[in-house]
Amino acid sequence: MILVLDFGGQYSQLIARRVREARVFSEMIPYDTPVEEILAREPEGIILSGGPNSVYEAGAPRVEETLFDLDVPMLGICYGMQLMALSMGGHVEAVQIREYGRSRIEVTEQKLLFAGTPDEQVAWTSHGDAVLAAPDGFQVTARTPSVPIIAFEAPELRGGRFGVQFHPEVRHTEYGMDILKNFLFEACECKPDWTPVNIITDAVEKIQAQVGDAKVICGLSGGVDSATAAMIVHRAIGGNLTCVFVDHGLLRQNEAEQVVETFGKESDVPLIHVDASGRFLDKLANVTDPEAKRKIIGEEFIRTFEVEAGKLAEDAKFLVQGTLYSDVIESGTRDAAKIKSHHNVGGLPEVMDLDLVEPLRNLFKDEVRVVAAELGMPERMVWRQPFPGPGLAIRVIGDVTAERLEILRRADFVLQDEIRSAGLYRELWQSFAVLPAIHSVGVMGDARTYAYPVVIRAVTSDDAMTADWARLPYDLLERISNRIINEVPGVNRVALDITSKPPGTIEWE
Ligand code: XMP
Q1: Are residues 285 and 200 in the same domain?
Q2: Structural domain includes residue 504
Q3: Residue ranges of the chain with per-residue pLDDT less than 50
Q4: Ligand 1 atom 9: the closest Cα is on which residue?
Q5: Per residue, what are the HEC states of 152-197?
């Protein structure tokens, strides 16, 4: 396992991802994690990330000096390299490096880190202080025309010490992956055994140890995360797991059937399907405020789940959640500015006094998809775009009625159908339709119409924190528009949302 100490660099998370791509498990932790705790994790190597600070700045992040005494291989990247240089007796100056972005570096010493890579290569260098003298026992291994020390290393020192003043984790760095692999496999002697099969086997063992013979429940949303979590737990404890699928009536066309089918036909996971749509619609009647809608749905969800869980397994001691690694990383900052009250099963534990089982806690979304495929889940489920907990209620702007939900559902179905046929479904982070609470005038078959517009929203994104509106081909937009107006009664106009996030959010409410 490789620990990435995060000094606040914009690529810190990417480092952990690249290490995992090399099939070595990696976790990102705050730079000020006590050395004792770091040791207790028994890392095979430590990577110190970049960061926005200068090592000489007041309040710049520092680590306990004893960190560098550990007999563990370490790779410092940018800020991490300077910190290593400074702490180990080198000389760092707060002169800004003039070269940054794409740079040509010259490898002057083929020792361990650059082994097997060419003497001249392109690397993505970064702003920062300059290391003017490497610590004793270190050898300078690469330079650029204006930066004499762009990389150094001491492979024999305490398991190995390495530093680079560029970002091996970004794709623009031509041999970045080779450099990382040299660190992982040559310096740290890691084995590339972080594979989907091993992830599943590991998770299964951990769950068995955690849960024993206790009863476990899992709320299914229809998305890939909760479904994958459920499948893994089922593999671990079989019949002691019961899944509850609360259908709040705010799902897309055929979605509820698909969930039931996936679980009913393709696996023998016991599933309780609760049709609570009436209950939710009653509570939502005449509610137009987005936050009020979210709160009502969150609350109703918990109540319904509680009732069902109470009925079937009074002695359930654990609750399965599909928490992902990105949720764990972001949880520190996510609520800093509350833009929307996100509803998922997160509110349940306090209310229900259940311990959590979170088999996906260490995984990124793309890793979950690989695991889901390995578990034999149908492709439609594996590649499902994210869908918000409150469902279509936050896409039907204003009053949520059965009639308006049906209009949106039909328009959304056409949109999905065309996006899939165009082969764009996987590329898009999300694509969906929104039903505003306005009417506009149109003309159809010589007659005046006065009906709803439908807004098409399609975005690309890596993590939903930021998103760009997708440039859908005109002919596809034309087909979508024609079909929605022809096939969905109550709609006479189609508009396209061309707002990125920020300043927009992905959903409309
Ligand atoms: P926004 O609209 O805030 O959405 O840009 C970011 C991502 O989160 C999804 N989303 C939710 N997911 N419960 C969820 O589980 C929610 O209440 C919720 N609200 C938004 C949204 O679809 C997008 O992927």
Answers
A1: yes
A2: no
A3: 332-338, 343, 345-349
A4: 388
A5: EEECCHHHCEEEECECCCCCCCCCHHHHHHHHHHHHCCCCCCCCHH
419 and 359 in one domain?
no
User: Ligand 1 in contact with 228 (CB < 6 A)?
Assistant: no
Q: How far apart are the CA of 426 and the centre of ligand 1, in A?
A: 18
Centroid of ligand 1 to alpha carbon of 310 (angstroms): 29
Mutate to test the pocket of ligand 1, among 327, 343, 428, 507 (most ligand atoms within 8 A of CB): 507
Q: In this structure, are 64 and 171 located in the same domain?
A: yes
**Residues 370 and 226 sit within 8 Å (Cβ to Cβ):** no
What's the CA gap between 493 and 452, in Å, rounded?
7
Centre of ligand 1 to C-alpha 253, Å, is 19
> How many folded domains does the chain comprise?
3
Mutate to test the pocket of ligand 1, among 340, 385, 430 (most ligand atoms within 8 A of CB): 340
CA of 480: how far to CAs of 49, 419, 452, 485, in Å?
A: 45, 9, 16, 9
Task: Based on the fold, state whether residues 235 and 156 are members of the same structural domain.
Answer: no
Same domain, 212 and 91: no
Ligand 1: centre distance to CA 385 (Å): 11
173 and 226: one domain? no
CATH code for position 428: 3.30.300.10
Report if residue 508 sits inside a domain.
no
Residue 394 in domain: no
- Protein residue whose Cα sits closest to atom 17 of ligand 1: 342
* pLDDT score of 339: 53
The answer to whether residue 396 is domain-embedded is: no
Q: What is the dihedral of CA 304, 307, 308, 314, to 10 degrees?
A: 150
CA distance 225 to 221: 9
Sequence-distant (≥ 6) Cβ neighbours of residue 108 within 8 angstroms: 140, 141, 142, 143
The range of the structural domain enclosing residue 307 comes to 196-382
Active-site residue, selected from the candidate residues 99, 167, 243, 343 = 167
